[in-house]
Amino acid sequence: MMPLALAQAGEVNVIKKITGKPEVKSHLETMGFVSGAEITVINEIAGNLIVNIKETRVAVSKEMAQKIMI
User: Fold this and answer.
1) CA Rg value for the chain
2) Which residues of 17-48 are buried (b: 16+ CB within 10 A; e: fewer)?
3) How would you write the chain as a 3-class SS string?
């Protein structure tokens, strides 16, 4: 298991766990970041990760990406 921040672009991964405070977990879950969901890093721009999750592109900060375990 490793944080999403270390994933390679274009690689399809599965979210195993979300860590952090309850409000952070809740925020990520509302955006579709839940255990078992497939996630692909598209690109990294200015320290943010552009990811594809549930057919939607979302930008997450490196800090948030450290809390998403794949």
Assistant:
1) 11
2) ebeeeeeebeebeeeebeeeeebbbeeeeeeb
3) CCEHHHCCCCCEEECCEECCCHHHHHHHHHCCCCCCCEEEEEEEECCEEEEEECCEEEEEEHHHHCCEEC
Average model confidence (pLDDT) across the chain: 94
Query: What share of the chain has pLDDT > 70, as a percent?
Result: 100
The residue type of 32 is G
Total-model pTM: 0.89
